[in-house]
Amino acid sequence: MVIIERAESLDAGEILTLQRAAYVSEAQLYGDPFIAPLVESLEQLRKAVESAVVLKAVDDGRVVGAVRGLVADVTPGTGTGRACVVGRLVVAPDRQGEGIGTALLEALHERVAAEHPDVRAFDLFTGHLSDANLRLYKRLGYGETRRERVQDHLTMVHMRRVVEP
């Protein structure tokens, strides 16, 4: 049975290993072995665990998934609300397709809403060729807001899920 709970600094090494395993297929899809999740350091991930809402999915003592959300002002200084930037949703390659990614995102939505009731949106991005990711995000209420070409081979699809007050 998969349990979703908050990650701690001690989980950073296992999450980093999982992240690298999960993002290999994305690197292959885009022909780029230097995508950010593959070159992130252990120290960078530890800092993310300390500064963001990082959840892990655990099954029988093994971390099989993780996601992070960083809450920030939508427009700093305007008081118009805050957004949670979702990143690094990962599921172990041998556990993909079991609903773990969905459960992690739903748990993140709930946890952020409980801890930060002023959050008005969840924002994320993924590559334009990442069809499974795009389907998942759309199914969970995210809509495309814009596309940004960042390299010849890569266009980022930015998406948002609005939270009703």
TrEMBL record:
The keyword Calcium does not apply. Gene3D superfamilies: 3.40.630.30. InterPro entries: Acyl_CoA_acyltransferase (IPR016181), GNAT_dom (IPR000182), NAT_camello-type (IPR050769). PROSITE patterns: GNAT (PS51186). It comes from the Bacteria. Keywords: Transferase. GO terms for molecular function: N-acetyltransferase activity. Residues 2-161 form the N-acetyltransferase domain. Pfam families: Acetyltransf_10. PANTHER family: GNAT FAMILY N-ACETYLTRANSFERASE (PTHR13947), LD18367P (PTHR13947:SF37). This is GNAT family N-acetyltransferase. The lineage of its organism: Bacteria, Bacillati, Actinomycetota, Actinomycetes, Streptosporangiales.
